[in-house]
Structure formats: C-alpha cells, structure tokens
Amino acid sequence: MSNEINESVALRIRRARMRRGWTARDLADRCLDSGFAGLSRGTIAKIESGIRRSISAEEVAVLARVLDVPETELTTPPPWDLGASIREARLAQKLTQQQVAERAGVSRTTLQALERGARPDGQPFTPSPLLIHQVVHALGITIPGPLGTGGVLCLSSERIPGPLRSEYYRLKLGAPEVPIPERYQAVLSESALLRMPGGRNPALQVDQIDHLARLNHVDERVEVQVLPFDAAVVAMPGDFETMLPGREASLWEEVSALALDLEASQEFLRELGARIRRGLSA
Q1: For an engineered disulfide with 95, which of 18, 99, 118, 138 has Cβ 3.0 to 4.6 Å away?
Q2: pLDDT at residue 55 tops 80
Q3: CA distance 79 to 247
Q4: Which of 41-45, 47-51, 84-88, 260-264 has the lowest mean pLDDT?
Q5: How many C-beta atoms lie closer than 10 Å to residue 237's C-beta?
C-alpha cells in the first residue's frame, strides 16, 4: 500500500529531518542503519522535492521510527492548511507565484514561504495577518478564520497595535501607517493604554486614548475592549494578531470574555482620558 506524496507531506518529512539537524545523507544513513536500504539519499531528496509522487507504508514507518515521530505526523494533513489552500487557488487560476506576488504586493520568496509554511532554510514561517489579507484578496478566496476573510483578532498587553495607532503615536514610534483590516477586534490591557513610546507622555496618552475612543465609536471595522488591571486574569499571554482558527483564536476568546464589553470599554476610555487631562491642567 502506498500514499500519495503531496507538497504538504513532503514538507513535513523535510521539517522533521531539519529539526534534528540532519542532511538527507544523514537520514539515509540512519535508515540504512535501521536495516532498511530502500531510502537512499537520492530517494529522500526526490520525496522531499515532490519529484517522487508516492511513498510506501513501509517507508513511512521507517522514516517515522528513525525521525522519532508518529507516522501520522508525516502523513496526516492538518484540518485546514493555509499554504495548501493558497497554492491550490493559485494553480486553479493558472497563475504563477510571481504573478500572485505582484498582485499582492509581496515578493515571490515570501509567497513561496507562505505556500510551503516554511522559510528556505526549513524553519517555520508565520505570516502576519496583513500578509494573509493581501494574498487571499489577490486570489479572491475566503479562509475559515475566526472572523472570516479579512478579519483579525488582536491581543495586546504592552503596546498599541499598528492599525489602532494615532498619527502622533506613530510619529513618536517612527513607524509607518498600518491599514485597518476589514474587521479588527482588539483586546488591549490597561498597561498598553498607559505605556507610551519614549517614556511617560500624558499628551500622547490623551491623543492615543481619544483616537481609540473615536475609532470604537465611528469605525464599523473596529471593536476595542479594555482589560483593566483588576480583571480576573492570572497573567496576560504574549501579544499577537491572528486571522486563523486555532490556539490563539481560542485564547483571544477566553481573554475577551474577561475584558470589559464594548460599551464599558468606551466609558473606560473616556474616563481615563479625562483623568489624564485633569493631570495636565493641574
């Protein structure tokens, strides 16, 4: 019995090998040491490159044993694969990587890493929501994200995320403007509202807080929740943005449930801005 080798399977075998710091020759030698001579360096290279289109159950078992991973890790695709979905859509439209890259305004190397889920050196590639947004729109496809195509969930404990920064905040940070996605739901800790680039700056705090309140009120794309210091959270996880289903989206849901709702967050922003203003005028 044999399994078809698609690009995802080939990549998982290559990743497992590179995690151990082995060359294709090293892997072939270890397969031989285990008593299996059918996986030469050339055969492994053909499997990983996709030149060879099938792999036997015995070969999978040997590779899994030598690489010390479950067989399913090499052969079972994830429930949904972003890179595979983008590649399938591109091929269905008979487009080259270069054509899609130009449409999306990214480099061909970046698109290649997105499709493969790995950088040229085999290290995992984690695309930003903005990059995903650019590519899926260039292809005109949808993805099963937590908010649908173009929707982003953000959790931030130490900074104001790019799409929500005021012009003054961006100037102090020396950062470019970041466009707001089609939908942007953010949970910001109280610390993120008070910590400013360059140190304590009440005028900047007021400007940024007013900007958030204004976005929350008039921009239908934006929803900002505040997580105050007294929220029942043991520890805030690291900052992230995601537009894909998975662990981070689930974590966002958990923290969002403990944050102030939209109306209470808006009132919190107004009161915090007023309190800092009073300090400025004192």
Answers
A1: 99
A2: yes
A3: 13
A4: 47-51
A5: 14
Three-class DSSP category at 77 = coil
- How many residues does this entry show for the chain? 282
Q: What is the 3-state secondary structure (H, E, C) of 185-241?
A: EEEEEHHHHHCCCCCCCHHHHHHHHHHHHHHHHHCCCEEEEEECCCCCCCCCCCCEE
Q: Is the pLDDT of residue 107 over 70?
A: yes
Joined tokens for residue 272: 């915090």
Sign of CA dihedral 60, 66, 69, 70: positive
- Retrieve residue 59's tokens: 């070969």
Please state, in angstroms and rounded to a whole number, the distance separating the CA atoms of residues 202 and 212. Answer: 15
Q: How far apart are CA 74 and CA 5, in angstroms?
A: 10
Q: What is the CA radius of gyration of the chain?
A: 24
Summarised one tens digit per residue, pLDDT across range 257-280 is 999 999 999 999 999 999 999 988
**CA 37, CA 5: separation in Å to the nearest integer?**
20
Residue 248 to residue 241: CA distance in whole angstroms: 8
Domains defined along the chain, listed by start: 2-75 (1.10.260.40), 82-139 (1.10.260.40), 151-281 (no CATH)
Please compute the mean of the pLDDT values over residues 183-191 and round it to a whole number: 92
> Which of 190, 195, 154 has its CA nearest to residue 269?
190
**φ, ψ for residue 44 (rounded to 5)?**
-65, -40
Which of the given ranges, 115-129, 219-233, 243-257, has the highest pLDDT on average?
219-233
Return the closest-CA partner of residue 157 out of 66, 203, 225: 225
Pick from 7-16, 35-44, 49-58, 91-100: least confident = 7-16
**Could you write out the three-class secondary structure of 22-39?**
CCHHHHHHHHHHCCCCCC
Give yes or no for a contact between 62 and 31, defined as CB atoms under 8 angstroms apart.
Answer: yes
Instruction: Locate 41 and state its tokens.
Output: 């360096």
